[in-house]
Fold each of these.
Amino acid sequence: MKIALEILLVLSSLLLLFLVLMHRGKGGGLSSLFGGGMQSSLSGSSVVERNLDIYTVAVGLFWLACILVYGLGVTFEFL
């Protein structure tokens, strides 16, 4: 159980890192690599950007839950 949780934690951490880097920042960020920095129908507050926000929050909450379960499991030794 502990090893499976550690694997989930590493995978969710990498996915969260990727999703955060995909967001468009003030300078364009990595998301401008796929759009070339041009104004198109896929930039700004479009469906793609909103979906990216939803996925980032969902993965962040999953990551937080993994951290809490792992921390409680190690502390109370039930893992």
Amino acid sequence: MPQLTPVEILIGVAVLVALVALRRASARAARKAHDAAQVGTRLMSLASRVLLGAAVIVGVQWIVISHAENRALLWTVLAVPALFAAYTVTKALTVTVETPRRKGGRR
């Protein structure tokens, strides 16, 4: 059995510590990359759903505007998506602040 000097043992321990640190750093970097890809995927998914919804609304409106003689139908087709859009924008831009209640306070 070969004899190891204290310097060789110290070098071996340092190499093991460096390998563990490298593995942890690479795992952390991989996790960051995965999280960034998830955010990008969610954003693209949201954008594609918004574009698809807008295309459906515009298509239906175009068909009704170009082929319908009924004014009530025309106004309905134009007003309903506008109401949904106004509701969504208003809800997104409205800021509500809740004050934290004290323990034992009235509810």
Amino acid sequence: MELNQWVDELFEVFDEDKDGVISRSEFVELIDVLLQDKGIRMCETIFNRFDTDHTNSISKDELKNMVIELAL
């Protein structure tokens, strides 16, 4: 599966309220699935690192950057 397709699918699944961004609570669920049992502190650290525009949400571009850095 191509990276963009994978990110699109992840985004669709975890943007539960379909508002076009991944909120902090949605992000916690995403990280829990991707990293499994690493704890809430890791989620907070990762969220803050990739919420580069400091909107307290993760855009699709920010998610793509996170996937590239953490998963590939």
Amino acid sequence: MSDWLTTDPWKFGAVGVSVLLGVMALIGLNRLFGLRSFSKLSGFDFAITVAFGSVLAGTVMAEDPPVVQGVAALFFLFALQAGIAFARTRWPWARELVNNKPRLVWHEGEFLSEQMKKAQITRSDIVAKMREANALRMDDVLAVVVETTGDISVLHKTGDDRDVDPAIMEGVIGWTG
């Protein structure tokens, strides 16, 4: 029972040093690899960001903190993300392989049930996002899009009857414009 509530002083210090070195490594690698490192521009980016946290937590909480291994793992995750980002900008097949496509799930007063099924979201998810986007009436909303990251965007009507710029909806599954 006492092992459950206490720890050796050296382990306490090791955790502190591991946290310090791990966070310093994250900051340094972020500076080295750039601002995109912690972005959520794609599902892959999100997965890598979660992996960063897992590696840091695993390193900090290990019995004998393997700080060098943790920093190496972080470096390779950053490098993998940079490599995938490079490939996505150069080759369409890489972009298609890694990126999800945004999906229209609500348009001008209609829930698009087939698209909702494919995106695995419910009517209540969409309505909650409308509220979150400060829509007071459904008539205020032009469209709702599930983005490549799983985030949900609510596009408000402008009130001046302008058409949506096709570039804004480029690649959105279900948009016919």
